[in-house]
Amino acid sequence: MAIDFSLFGIIKNHVNKDGSGSHAYYSTGMWTILAAMIFLFLGTLIVLFTCFSARKKTRASKTTADTGYEHGYSNTPTRTTRRKRFGIF
Question: What percentage of the chain reaches a pLDDT higher than 90?
Fold first, then answer.
């Protein structure tokens, strides 16, 4: 976005100082790009917040509710091998 604004500013100054009588100005397109970037940033924050809150919620529900024991202890053996994620780690 910074590149868009800086390049358009350079072109705008070149066109305005050209002497041909034409004028360039920031129009709705540049402000639409700015609004899109703001909404994209807000959407990213919302997705991150919902992802972390859902993860916290699932971890909290696995303690006593699933096993039936206090503090999440059970008689079943725990997994000793490391679980692979994404097939490469």
Answer: 15
